[in-house]
Amino acid sequence: MTKAQNNTAVQGPLIVFDGVCVLCNRWVNFILKADQKQVFTFSSYQGLPSYISKEGVSIPLEHSIALYDNGAWFQQSTAVLLIFKKLYGRFHWSQLAWIAPRFLRDFLYKQVAKRRYQWFGKTDSCRVPNQEEANRFIG
Fold this sequence. Notes:
The chain is an alpha+beta fold. It has helices spanning about 20-35, 75-90, 100-120; strands at about 15, 40-45, 65-70, 70-75. Strands 2-1-3-4 form a 4-stranded mixed beta sheet, with helices on one face.
């Protein structure tokens, strides 16, 4: 897999997150640690390069974790479940959540998303990747 650079198209799945949200940054840290094969590339929505098409985004990016994969956008609980599937495979316990109807999964997701700053906090600036992580981030 080719790593995404600032002037090239994204190769492989891209996770777009809120760069100032403490919960979102913890989620990114979790994925970075679990992603031993370095499948994912990351961008904060605040720094998302303009060459990435937002066509297909149904919810403003600041309201949801988003996964951009093969030209399609996935958001909210669907994005989270697909990320877990790519990390651990389709037989991981997390995939049991697909049984729940999407409206219920997304309702729970929205409740946490709405309160994330209140419960987990907010930083003054976006996450800056360290040297080891720099090739995994764009924007």
